[in-house]
Amino acid sequence: MSISNELSIVIEGHEMIHLPLPYNIHLLLGDSGKGKTYICKIIDNQREYGGKVGTTIPLDDILIWSKVSDVDTTARGKLIIVDRYAYVRRHKPEVIEFIRNTSDSNKFILISNRLQKDGFEIPSQAVYEIVYDEERECFTVSNYFRNQDYTVIKSIKSIDELFNT
Fold this sequence. Notes:
By secondary structure, the chain is α/β, with parallel strands linked by helices. The protein has helices spanning 36-49, 85-91, 94-102, 159-163, and strands spanning 6-11, 14-20, 25-29, 53-55, 62-65, 79-82, 107-112, 126-133, 138-142.
C-alpha cells in the first residue's frame, strides 16, 4: 500500500488541513498554541463523528499516537502522527526502532514544540513548522529549514517546490 504524498482534509467543502508529505519521516514543529494537537483532534473527531469529509489519505489509515497506550508497533501501511513525540519516545523507547524499521511501509509525522540536540534519535527527511494560513483558512506548513543538530537524510525542498510538484 502506498500512502499519498500529501494529507488534505476537506470538511463540508472547506479544506482544513493541507500538509505535504514528500518523504517518509517528517518533523512538525510549532510553538504552543499553533495547532499541532488541534490537527490531531480534527482527524480524531472526523473519524468518530463522520460527516462530509474528503481526504487524500483514508481516516482509517491515519493513526494518532498522543499517549503511550496509543502506540501500536504492528502498524503497516499507515500515516502515523506522533503528537508529543519526545514524551512518547521517552516512555516507550522502542518506538524509535519501530520508526526506523518501518519507514519504508509507514509515513510518520513526529510532532514537537522544538528541536532537541539529540535530533530525537530519528533521521528526519523533512523538518517544517505548522502555520495557520489565514488566506486559505487551513493548517499547512512553512519555513522548511536545516538544523546542524538534526540529521536530514535528503535535502529539504522549499515550500514552493513542494506545492508546485
